[in-house]
Design brief:
With about 150 residues, the chain is mostly helical. Helix content is about 60%, strand content about 5%. A hairpin with a 5-residue loop joins strand 1 and strand 2. The longest helix has 23 residues, at about 80-105.
Length: about 150
C-alpha cells in the first residue's frame, strides 16, 4: 500500500514545513535516536561534545536565507563526495525526525535496532518480509524506512 501523495497532501506538508525554524531543526538533530532528554545528555561532557558535533554538522549543511527558507551552504556544496554523503545522511535523518514530530505527533524517534535485544526473531523476520514484499510491489519510496533496513 502506497502513501497518498496527492496534491492536497503535498501542499499540506509544504505549508507545515514553511514555518520551519532553525531552532527546531537543531533540536531534531540533537534528539534524533534518543528516547528522552535524559538520554541526550546522560554521558556528561561526551554528550555535550556530541551535541556540539550534531549542531555543527547542521550549521555546516544548511542555513536560512532572507526568506527564512533553508538552503545548502556554500561550504557544504564544496565538500568532497564522501563528506557530503555523510552530511546528507545525517540531515535526512534529522528531517525525518522533524517530519515524524510535526506530522505524526511522534516527538521521539528511534531506530528499530535500539529494540533488537527485546524483539523476538519472529518480529524481525516479519519486518524483513514486509519490507521485501513492499519492494517487490515496486514501492521504492522507502526513505523513512531506509535507515531501518534489515538484510
Amino acid at each position: 500500500m502506497r502513501a497518498d501523495l496527492s496534491p492536497p497532501f503535498i501542499v499540506y506538508v509544504m505549508l507545515e514545513f514553511s514555518t520551519l525554524h532553525g531552532d527546531e531543526l537543531l533540536w531534531a538533530a540533537i534528539t534524533i535516536g534518543r528516547p528522552s532528554t535524559y538520554h541526550v545528555f546522560r554521558y556528561g561532557t561526551a554528550s555535550f561534545h556530541e551535541a556540539i558535533f550534531r549542531l555543527s554538522l547542521i550549521r555546516l549543511a544548511v542555513e536560512e536565507d532572507w526568506g527564512n527558507r533553508l538552503r545548502r551552504t556554500d561550504a557544504f556544496v564544496a565538500l568532497d563526495p564522501t563528506e557530503k554523503g555523510m552530511g546528507s545522511y545525517f540531515l535526512g535523518m534529522t528531517l525525518c525526525k522533524l517530519f515524524a514530530s510535526r506530522l505524526l505527533n511522534t516527538p521521539w524517534l528511534l531506530h528499530l535496532d535500539v529494540f533488537r535485544s527485546s524483539l523476538s526473531a519472529v518480529i524481525l523476520a516479519l519486518q524483513l518480509l514486509l519490507l521485501r514484499a513492499s519492494e517487490s510491489m515496486g514501492n521504492h519510496d522507502s526513505d523513512v524506512v531506509d535507515a531501518g533496513r534489515v538484510g
